[in-house]
Amino acid sequence: MRDLLRDQTLQDLVRLSSLIAARIIHREVVMDPDALAGLVKASYAKLQSREVSRVRMHPALELW
Q1: H-only helix segments in 2-60
Q2: Are the C-beta atoms of 58 and 25 separated by less than 8 Å?
Q3: Residue 53's pLDDT band (boundaries 50, 70, 90)?
Q4: Whole-angstrom Cα distance, residue 63 to residue 34?
C-alpha cells in the first residue's frame, strides 16, 4: 500500500509541476510575445547541426 501511495503521489507531483510550469510560460508569453521568439532563435543558433529541425506550436500560439 505504501509503494502504491508513493507512486501515485509522485505522478501527482509531476502533473502539478507541469501544470504550474505551463501557466508560468503562458503568462510570460502573453506579457512578452517576443520573448518566445527570442528563445526559439537562440535555441536554433545553439543547435549548429545540419539536421532538419522543426518546432511545432498550437495554432492559437502563432506569433508570426
Answers
A1: 2-31, 33-47
A2: no
A3: low
A4: 8
**Which of 62, 7, 10, 4 lies closest to 36 in space, CA to CA?**
62
Q: What is the pTM of this model?
A: 0.52
Q: Which three cell numbers stand for residue 53?
A: 529541425
Structure letter (DSSP) for residue 20: H
C-alpha cell at 55: 518546432
Find the helix packing angle between 33-47 and 2-31, rounded to 10°: 110
The answer to whether the CB of 29 falls within 8 A of the CB of 36 is yes
Q: Cβ-count burial of 29 within 10 angstroms (0-12 exposed, 13-18 middle, 19+ buried)?
A: middle
Distance of CA 56 to the CA centre of its chain: 12
- Furthest C-alpha separation in the chain: 51
